[in-house]
Known about the structure:
Layout: H1 19-28, E1 40-41, E2 44-45, E3 63-64, E4 76-77, H2 81-89, E5 99-100, E6 134-135, H3 144-150, E7 183-192, E8 203-213, E9 218-222, H4 229-236, E10 245-252, E11 255-257, H5 259-265, E12 266-269, H6 281-292, H7 299-312, H8 335-346, E13 353-357, H9 365-380, E14 384-388, H10 394-397, E15 402-407, E16 410-416, H11 420-426, H12 437-445, H13 452-472, E17 482-483, H14 485-497, H15 502-519, H16 521-541, H17 551-578, H18 581-593, H19 599-629, H20 635-663, H21 667-683, H22 699-704, H23 706-719, H24 740-747, H25 755-785
Parallel strand pairs: 9-14, 9-15, 11-17, 12-13, 13-14
Antiparallel strand pairs: 1-4, 2-3, 5-6, 7-8, 7-10, 10-11, 15-16
Helix pairs in contact: 6-7, 8-9, 15-19, 16-19, 17-20, 17-21, 17-23, 19-20, 20-21, 20-23, 20-25, 23-24, 23-25
Amino acid sequence: MDNQPTSVLDDTALDRTDASRYDRALDETPMPHKWGSARSIQIEKWQHGRGRSSTFPSKDRALAWEARSASNRENVSVEDENSRQELLERPPLRNTGEVCEAAELFDESDLIFDNEGAAEMDSDGASSADDYPLSCVQLNPTPDSVDLIDATEVNIDDAVRPSSAPSWARRTVRDAFATDINFSWHRVTVQVPEQPKKKVPGKTILNNIHGLARAGSLLAIMGASGAGKTTFLNLLTDRTASGLQVNAVLAINDNAIKPSDVRRISSYVQQQDLFFSNLTVLEHLTVQALLRMNRNLTRKARLARVHEVLHELGLMDVINSYIGSVSGGTRGISGGQQKRLSFATEVLTDPPVLFADEPTTGLDSFASEIVVHHLKRMAKSGRTILCTIHQPPTEVFNCFDDLLLLAEGRTAYLGPRAAAVSYFSNIGYSCPSGFNPADFYIYTLAVVPTEREESLAKIEEITDKYLEVEKNEGVHDRPLPKPSAALTRTVQELADEQGESVLNQLAVLGKRTFRLTMRSMVMVQLNIMATLVVAIAMGLFYLDIGTEENIVRRVQGITGAIFLLISVGGYNGAGNIAQVVPVEHPIFVREYESGTYSPAVYFICKYLATLPLVLVLQLVASVITYFMFGLVREAGRYFIFYAVNVMVLLCAESIGYIISAVAGSNLSVAFALTPVGIVPLMLFSGLLLNLNSTPGYVVWLEALSFMRWGFEAAMINEFQQDFLQNCTVLNATEACFSNGDQVLQHFGFDTSTDTIGRNFGIMAALAIGYRLVAFIITMISLRMGVKR
Length: 788
């Protein structure tokens, strides 16, 4: 190609500003696996001091591997065509930060480093400098890899040209692009439509704003309350609330991109840090890497990326520490470390564009400075980072490269942070000496309630003057960016590469869910103890009621004991789910927005994770109560009794999932809805209201009551074909049940021989149906609250 550089290693063609592009060019150039004596390769080193991989010290980042044909490069010699075929059979290696033993990959004659602080291979093939590990990972070869060896196409002049690396060789999202990304927005207008019927006037939140976030820069978005910062960030991240009228054009490198596609190339670090407190830092990131990274990567490559990110964000010291939760009372890592972990979660895929909402919220000035310093370092590696921030201290504010000031939905300033003071001074608003510039901008652009008209006039004056600057630069006269076929194709490839298979999602998420359950042993033990205490109390209350000589007392006692056991199990089952799932709901929503896994997989894993506890709880309850009640001592009848209680608890948990889906993350609502969901089902169980007396307009509710089917099955199991008393010896005035069928008919139960099996089938269908309803409610709420 005419525009192709003569060599990606030519340091005369690339300056320091091209360092991140250079890094990518290195990653896209295959390395030979093992060279025999007939082949040789020279290793060039170019010190640019901006290594993207933190496992390489910056001064030694520039290890460049390049294998090209002899016609293109002088430093590679390949004797014959057979070597080309051998290269095809030996997969290329690309730097991922995974520390490997060099002796496993190279002979001592294959690799020699210089003595300028780098490692030097000894005769055993081991490195003499452990501080500079060799980073590597193997990928599966394809026939296209030979073409890459012949000619790696890297055109740094083409702003939208995709990376030449094939999709199977992409380790991160940024690898899909041959250049760093400038992210721009054009004619952004957001309005709340007028509602004449409700007499609600319309309002303009953002008014025709333009701007650019430079590649490799850290942009601060600031403004007083009501300036439109949150709306602006939500628009850029495709999370605009429904009901708003939006007109905007987003672009990368002056090529239009759909808002939904912005999600493919970016990540969003939200203000609130949400984690499972019982996971360690490494476990959390490992799960995210296994679910979110390129599906073509091996597990080894993903774990390598995890360690890169841990190094990059300074979290290696807490790698095996529990994350913890301040609100939950669980000790763990600090608030600043949790914020850095939030960034680590989102940069695992190495997106070229990163958004952050108030990254310093809740942190002290020292922790805030550490977080922003890490952001700046990530930006210098080639990322484009935009974040809203509220009145940062001077030390934190000075870490930003660029500054965007919004006021009443308009742009008051966009440019280098260091030049903002001079700009405001030139338009008549000088920052006092020794005053924090960030505070000065906020105070200058804020609307003072007692001086509203004056404040609005001042804001209009400032924004009008910046509008003149934009007009002088021709910002509003430039044609809008157009879509690019190459960009569209690259984004689609990224979409195809993301997302694990359902089986892999089940494996990873199931393991995490089971691990969390096992680590919540306090709750498990409390549940078991509570079940044990209640079962013993009920056993003592109904002790040997099944052996009572008086038939009426026996029937009444057994009926009450079975109903109470089923009712307590139903209420506890629904309540246990209703007090756990809402706590996890915000994390589930966050991971859903990030496309981490399918919601169906999440629910399946939750269901499976609670099953062992259900079996244990009902085993404890049924063993104690069955024999203390003095019920029929037959093994078959006991196991049916146990199975009935298991099915009742599973159905009750399903009701708990419906309650949780309606309540969302609001625990108070979940607690309030629990009796609303359980009590009506108790009324139609068959004890409090005879089944033959159920009003026709609520028969459907009786059919939906899992307690009705469970209670009937337990009663049939106890009384069917059981001889109770010879009524011929009693006076006619006394109540008498000569056999169990009479008892069942008295309550309106079906005495058919297959009734128990039918009831089990109905309860299983109800358990599945309830959970499907919960899933549908959850999906509707997600789609209403999150614009996909």
